[in-house]
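Colleagues,

For the teaching module next term, I've prepared a clean inverse folding example: a structure given as C-alpha coordinates, and then the sequence designed for it. I'd like students to try predicting residues themselves before seeing the answer, so please don't circulate the second half yet.
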Protein backbone atom coordinates (compact mmCIF):
# COMPACT_ATOMS: atom_id res chain seq x y z
CA UNK A 1 0.00 0.00 0.00
CA UNK A 2 1.40 3.41 -1.00
CA UNK A 3 2.47 5.47 2.00
CA UNK A 4 0.67 8.49 0.50
CA UNK A 5 -2.63 6.65 0.87
CA UNK A 6 -2.32 6.96 4.64
CA UNK A 7 -1.52 10.69 4.46
CA UNK A 8 -4.83 11.76 2.95
CA UNK A 9 -6.46 14.68 4.73
CA UNK A 10 -9.89 13.81 3.40
CA UNK A 11 -12.00 11.22 5.22
CA UNK A 12 -12.84 8.18 3.10
CA UNK A 13 -16.26 6.57 3.51
CA UNK A 14 -17.37 3.45 1.69
CA UNK A 15 -20.72 3.37 -0.10
CA UNK A 16 -22.22 -0.12 0.18
CA UNK A 17 -25.07 -2.24 1.50
CA UNK A 18 -23.28 -5.56 1.09
CA UNK A 19 -22.83 -6.96 4.60
CA UNK A 20 -19.68 -8.96 3.85
CA UNK A 21 -18.03 -6.01 2.09
CA UNK A 22 -18.99 -3.62 4.88
CA UNK A 23 -17.60 -5.88 7.59
CA UNK A 24 -14.34 -6.36 5.66
CA UNK A 25 -14.01 -2.63 5.04
CA UNK A 26 -14.73 -1.80 8.67
CA UNK A 27 -11.32 -3.30 9.50
CA UNK A 28 -9.53 -1.13 6.91
CA UNK A 29 -7.68 1.75 8.63
CA UNK A 30 -8.27 3.92 5.53
CA UNK A 31 -12.05 3.87 5.99
CA UNK A 32 -13.58 6.44 8.36
CA UNK A 33 -17.28 5.79 7.81
CA UNK A 34 -20.09 4.27 5.77
CA UNK A 35 -23.05 5.35 3.67
CA UNK A 36 -25.96 3.30 2.33
CA UNK A 37 -29.09 4.00 0.31
CA UNK A 38 -32.25 2.11 -0.69
CA UNK A 39 -30.92 1.41 -4.21
CA UNK A 40 -27.78 -0.25 -2.84
CA UNK A 41 -29.85 -2.19 -0.33
CA UNK A 42 -32.15 -3.51 -3.06
CA UNK A 43 -29.14 -4.46 -5.18
CA UNK A 44 -27.64 -6.33 -2.21
CA UNK A 45 -30.87 -8.27 -1.71
CA UNK A 46 -31.89 -6.60 1.56
CA UNK A 47 -35.56 -7.39 2.23
CA UNK A 48 -36.00 -6.14 5.81
CA UNK A 49 -34.72 -2.56 6.02
CA UNK A 50 -34.78 -2.15 9.80
CA UNK A 51 -33.35 -5.60 10.52
CA UNK A 52 -30.45 -4.97 8.15
CA UNK A 53 -29.62 -1.59 9.69
CA UNK A 54 -29.79 -2.92 13.24
CA UNK A 55 -27.62 -5.89 12.26
CA UNK A 56 -24.95 -3.66 10.73
CA UNK A 57 -24.96 -1.43 13.81
CA UNK A 58 -24.22 -4.45 16.00
CA UNK A 59 -20.88 -4.66 14.17
CA UNK A 60 -20.22 -1.04 13.15
CA UNK A 61 -20.76 1.26 16.12
CA UNK A 62 -17.56 3.29 16.25
CA UNK A 63 -17.68 4.99 12.81
CA UNK A 64 -20.35 7.21 11.21
CA UNK A 65 -22.91 5.32 9.14
CA UNK A 66 -25.75 6.85 7.13
CA UNK A 67 -29.17 5.24 6.65
CA UNK A 68 -31.71 6.89 4.34
CA UNK A 69 -35.42 7.51 4.79
CA UNK A 70 -37.48 6.05 1.97
CA UNK A 71 -40.82 7.86 2.40
CA UNK A 72 -41.81 10.46 -0.17
CA UNK A 73 -44.16 12.66 1.87
CA UNK A 74 -42.43 14.98 4.32
CA UNK A 75 -44.42 14.00 7.40
CA UNK A 76 -43.55 10.31 6.99
CA UNK A 77 -39.95 11.26 6.22
CA UNK A 78 -39.86 13.05 9.56
CA UNK A 79 -41.26 10.07 11.43
CA UNK A 80 -38.78 7.70 9.78
CA UNK A 81 -35.87 10.07 10.41
CA UNK A 82 -36.66 10.34 14.10
CA UNK A 83 -36.84 6.57 14.45
CA UNK A 84 -33.62 5.93 12.52
CA UNK A 85 -31.78 8.51 14.63
CA UNK A 86 -32.47 6.46 17.77
CA UNK A 87 -30.64 3.40 16.47
CA UNK A 88 -27.15 4.57 17.42
CA UNK A 89 -24.94 7.50 18.35
CA UNK A 90 -22.95 6.99 15.13
CA UNK A 91 -26.05 7.11 12.89
CA UNK A 92 -26.62 9.92 10.38
CA UNK A 93 -30.05 10.05 8.77
CA UNK A 94 -30.02 10.60 5.02
CA UNK A 95 -32.67 13.01 3.77
CA UNK A 96 -32.94 13.75 0.03
CA UNK A 97 -32.77 17.41 -0.91
CA UNK A 98 -36.28 17.12 -2.41
CA UNK A 99 -38.92 14.43 -2.63
CA UNK A 100 -39.79 12.77 -5.95
CA UNK A 101 -42.04 15.64 -7.07
CA UNK A 102 -39.37 18.26 -6.43
CA UNK A 103 -40.70 19.56 -3.09
CA UNK A 104 -37.83 20.96 -1.01
CA UNK A 105 -37.03 19.24 2.28
CA UNK A 106 -35.24 22.33 3.67
CA UNK A 107 -37.83 23.05 6.36
CA UNK A 108 -37.80 19.42 7.47
CA UNK A 109 -33.98 19.46 7.48
CA UNK A 110 -34.00 22.57 9.67
CA UNK A 111 -36.51 21.09 12.09
CA UNK A 112 -34.70 17.76 12.47
CA UNK A 113 -31.23 19.26 12.71
CA UNK A 114 -32.31 21.65 15.45
CA UNK A 115 -33.86 18.76 17.33
CA UNK A 116 -30.39 17.22 17.45
CA UNK A 117 -30.77 14.68 14.63
CA UNK A 118 -27.50 14.20 12.73
CA UNK A 119 -28.31 14.44 9.03
CA UNK A 120 -26.74 13.56 5.71
CA UNK A 121 -28.61 15.60 3.12
CA UNK A 122 -28.25 13.75 -0.17
CA UNK A 123 -28.84 13.86 -3.96
CA UNK A 124 -27.55 17.45 -4.17
CA UNK A 125 -26.10 18.69 -7.48
CA UNK A 126 -26.08 22.51 -7.42
CA UNK A 127 -24.61 25.29 -5.28
CA UNK A 128 -28.13 26.74 -4.98
CA UNK A 129 -29.26 23.54 -3.30
CA UNK A 130 -26.17 23.59 -1.05
CA UNK A 131 -26.97 27.14 0.05
CA UNK A 132 -30.58 26.23 0.86
CA UNK A 133 -29.52 23.15 2.81
CA UNK A 134 -26.68 24.87 4.69
CA UNK A 135 -29.00 27.69 5.71
CA UNK A 136 -31.35 25.06 7.14
CA UNK A 137 -28.52 23.20 8.91
CA UNK A 138 -26.75 26.24 10.36
CA UNK A 139 -26.36 26.06 14.17
CA UNK A 140 -27.92 22.60 14.20
CA UNK A 141 -26.52 19.13 14.87
CA UNK A 142 -23.39 17.82 13.11
CA UNK A 143 -24.31 17.22 9.49
CA UNK A 144 -23.10 16.13 6.06
CA UNK A 145 -23.96 17.73 2.73
CA UNK A 146 -23.61 15.12 -0.03
CA UNK A 147 -23.03 16.60 -3.47
CA UNK A 148 -23.08 14.04 -6.30
CA UNK A 149 -19.89 15.12 -8.07
CA UNK A 150 -19.82 11.95 -10.17
CA UNK A 151 -23.25 12.68 -11.59
CA UNK A 152 -22.18 16.25 -12.28
CA UNK A 153 -19.22 14.87 -14.26
CA UNK A 154 -21.62 12.56 -16.13
CA UNK A 155 -23.22 15.69 -17.64
CA UNK A 156 -19.87 16.82 -19.07
CA UNK A 157 -19.22 19.44 -16.38
CA UNK A 158 -16.00 19.66 -14.36
CA UNK A 159 -17.11 19.03 -10.76
CA UNK A 160 -13.97 20.44 -9.10
CA UNK A 161 -14.73 24.20 -9.34
CA UNK A 162 -18.35 23.52 -8.43
CA UNK A 163 -17.30 21.52 -5.38
CA UNK A 164 -14.92 24.31 -4.34
CA UNK A 165 -17.84 26.74 -4.46
CA UNK A 166 -19.95 24.32 -2.42
CA UNK A 167 -17.20 24.07 0.19
CA UNK A 168 -17.13 27.85 0.59
CA UNK A 169 -20.88 27.80 1.24
CA UNK A 170 -20.59 25.01 3.81
CA UNK A 171 -17.67 26.69 5.57
CA UNK A 172 -19.56 29.97 5.80
CA UNK A 173 -22.44 28.25 7.60
CA UNK A 174 -20.51 26.55 10.38
CA UNK A 175 -17.82 24.00 11.16
CA UNK A 176 -20.43 21.34 12.01
CA UNK A 177 -21.37 21.06 8.31
CA UNK A 178 -19.14 18.71 6.31
CA UNK A 179 -19.06 18.52 2.51
CA UNK A 180 -19.07 15.05 0.96
CA UNK A 181 -18.01 14.22 -2.63
CA UNK A 182 -20.52 11.54 -3.63
CA UNK A 183 -20.91 9.11 -6.56
CA UNK A 184 -17.19 8.65 -7.14
CA UNK A 185 -16.23 7.01 -10.43
CA UNK A 186 -12.45 6.52 -10.19
CA UNK A 187 -9.46 6.80 -7.86
CA UNK A 188 -8.61 10.24 -9.28
CA UNK A 189 -11.75 11.55 -7.59
CA UNK A 190 -10.08 11.15 -4.18
CA UNK A 191 -7.33 13.55 -5.28
CA UNK A 192 -9.85 15.93 -6.87
CA UNK A 193 -12.05 15.94 -3.79
CA UNK A 194 -9.08 16.73 -1.59
CA UNK A 195 -8.03 19.60 -3.89
CA UNK A 196 -11.58 20.95 -3.67
CA UNK A 197 -11.26 20.90 0.16
CA UNK A 198 -14.08 18.39 0.60
CA UNK A 199 -14.22 16.87 4.06
CA UNK A 200 -15.37 13.40 2.98
CA UNK A 201 -15.52 11.27 -0.14
CA UNK A 202 -17.54 8.09 -0.62
CA UNK A 203 -15.88 5.34 -2.63
CA UNK A 204 -16.91 1.91 -3.87
CA UNK A 205 -15.11 -1.30 -3.01
CA UNK A 206 -13.55 -1.30 -6.51
CA UNK A 207 -11.95 2.09 -5.85
CA UNK A 208 -10.69 0.92 -2.47
CA UNK A 209 -8.91 -1.95 -4.22
CA UNK A 210 -7.21 0.52 -6.57
CA UNK A 211 -5.77 2.58 -3.72
CA UNK A 212 -2.70 0.36 -3.59
CA UNK A 213 -1.73 1.91 -6.94
CA UNK A 214 -1.90 5.53 -5.77
CA UNK A 215 1.22 7.45 -6.93
CA UNK A 216 2.68 4.27 -8.44
CA UNK A 217 5.50 4.70 -10.96
CA UNK A 218 3.96 5.04 -14.43
CA UNK A 219 6.79 3.14 -16.15
CA UNK A 220 6.02 0.19 -13.88
CA UNK A 221 2.33 0.47 -14.77
CA UNK A 222 3.24 0.53 -18.46
CA UNK A 223 5.40 -2.60 -18.14
CA UNK A 224 2.68 -4.45 -16.23
CA UNK A 225 0.21 -3.54 -18.96
CA UNK A 226 2.49 -4.96 -21.66
CA UNK A 227 2.97 -8.14 -19.61
CA UNK A 228 -0.81 -8.49 -19.26
CA UNK A 229 -1.33 -8.20 -23.04
CA UNK A 230 1.39 -10.80 -23.68
CA UNK A 231 0.07 -13.21 -21.05
CA UNK A 232 -3.50 -12.96 -22.32
CA UNK A 233 -2.42 -13.50 -25.96
CA UNK A 234 -0.42 -16.58 -24.95
CA UNK A 235 -3.21 -18.06 -22.80
CA UNK A 236 -5.70 -17.51 -25.64
CA UNK A 237 -3.37 -19.43 -28.02
CA UNK A 238 -3.36 -16.71 -30.69
CA UNK A 239 -1.18 -17.43 -33.73
CA UNK A 240 -0.39 -15.68 -37.01
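(Answer key — instructors only)
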Amino acid sequence: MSESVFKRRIKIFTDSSDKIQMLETSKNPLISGFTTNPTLMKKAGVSDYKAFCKDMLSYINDKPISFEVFADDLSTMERQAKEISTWGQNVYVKIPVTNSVGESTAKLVHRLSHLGVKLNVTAILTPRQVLEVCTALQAGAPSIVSVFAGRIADTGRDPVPLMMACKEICFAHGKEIELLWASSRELLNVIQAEKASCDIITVTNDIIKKMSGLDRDLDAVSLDTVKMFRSDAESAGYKL
